[in-house]
Amino acid sequence: MSETERDISFETLAQACAIDISQLTKSGRGELNGALKQLRDALPDFSDLELSLVIEDRAKAYRQTMPDVMLTPSALVKHWAALEGVRARQQTYPEHEPLDCPTCGDLRMVEREDGYGPCPTCNGKALDIVDRYHQRQTRVGRSPLLP
């Protein structure tokens, strides 16, 4: 790569981790380069631009999953594979549309005699799961309310 050619994935990784490239120390540049090498090795068929798009996507998943934890190049590499699963789950289970539920007011939970549980009007799937759990626990002689 010539001096005039940009390394987009390097810049994207730095930006995703809030690193000012002009302020990099030798060890900071080494950490960034080392992390980027591992990412390039993990995705050898990706172009520089394609890799930069994946870096942006996984960095977004990292921040959504761990909003109070500093994102570093090493942390992104460490959690790289798990972050793919996070993004896939988010695409599979999108946030629900408001239902204007008269029973729970879209909280999807209601107060029950045994505490709080899924709303029977708008959250039937979760209610079925809870009820099956309670039935199983009662069948084996345990109180479903006790740990």
Q: What does this protein structure show overall?
A:
It is built from 6 helices and 2 strands, in the order αααααββα. The chain has 147 residues and is mainly alpha-helical. It has 2 domains: 85 residues, no CATH class; 52 residues, no CATH class. It has a two-stranded antiparallel sheet. α1 packs parallel to α3. It is elongated, with a radius of gyration of 23 Å. The relative contact order is 0.08.
User: Low-confidence segments, ≥5 residues, pLDDT <50?
Assistant: none
* C-alpha termini separation: 60 Å
How much strand? 5-15%
H/I helix tally: 6
Brief descriptors of the model:
147 residues; mainly alpha; 2 domains; two-stranded antiparallel ribbon; 6 helices; 5% strand; elongated
